[in-house]
Amino acid sequence: MNFHIMTLFPDMVDNGLSESITGRAIKNNIIKVNTVNIRDFAQNKYGHVDDYTYGGGAGMLMQAEPVYLAYRSIIESNSLSERKPRVLYMTPQGIPFSQNMAVELSKEEDIVILCGHYEGIDERVLEMIVTDNVSIGDFVLTGGELPAMMIVDAVSRLVPGVLGKEDSAVYESFYDGLLEYPQYTRPEVFMGREVPGVLLSGHHKNIEKWRYEQSLQRTKERRPDLYEIYINKLKKEDETKKQNL
Ligand code: ADE
Fold this sequence. Notes:
- Helices cover 40% and strands 18% of the residues.
- The chain is an alpha/beta fold.
- A 5-stranded parallel β-sheet has the order 2-1-6-5-7, sandwiched between helices. A two-stranded antiparallel ribbon has the order 3-4. A two-stranded antiparallel ribbon has the order 8-9.
- α1 packs parallel to α6, α3 packs parallel to α5 (123-129) and α8 packs across α9 (224-243).
- The structure holds adenine (ADE).
């Protein structure tokens, strides 16, 4: 799977993704991260890619042309003009990123991610190239690089072969819409705190039941919004089962 990232700070993205699991996936050629420096497409000898905003207002805006040329270079050098790839623009004005979106994106062959800086990007080029406006939360960052790295991370770990055997054994938060249950490793007693007895019992049914109950309780306490959705889903499944009897 190929991520093409348009940014003014390619080193930030390359360095951030070159460690740990994403780094290993890049080395093993399971994912490719192709950072494209928008500044390389500046139309002046100073390498400026920003300018004042029409109509006034504080701050500078990224110009349309270097962004458009960077996009075209990605399309052309990767022969992508036939199957137009998704182009994600990282913006706090976008749709909130979610695990469902990560699953959907993990089925794509190529994804283009556009990182903004300054006060944003000239609207015209966004209209021309962007397919999805994506936010990573209701807060404002200085640029789209960290959000882009988060998306690459969340999507990559769903690509077959990226997680090793050990990693993939990790229970997924959000699997089935519930938060993960608490986990423990050695020692059995840490500063007077004991590992819950059921986990030492070797009784798999009881362990499963305990974990499910912990997941339910944790979700109810920490994410009542997710809990509500989960309970409603259970109720619906129950009703359809009854109707089918
Ligand atoms: N760029 C700046 N803030 C952002 C956010 N919250 N989500 C995505 N991109 C951003």
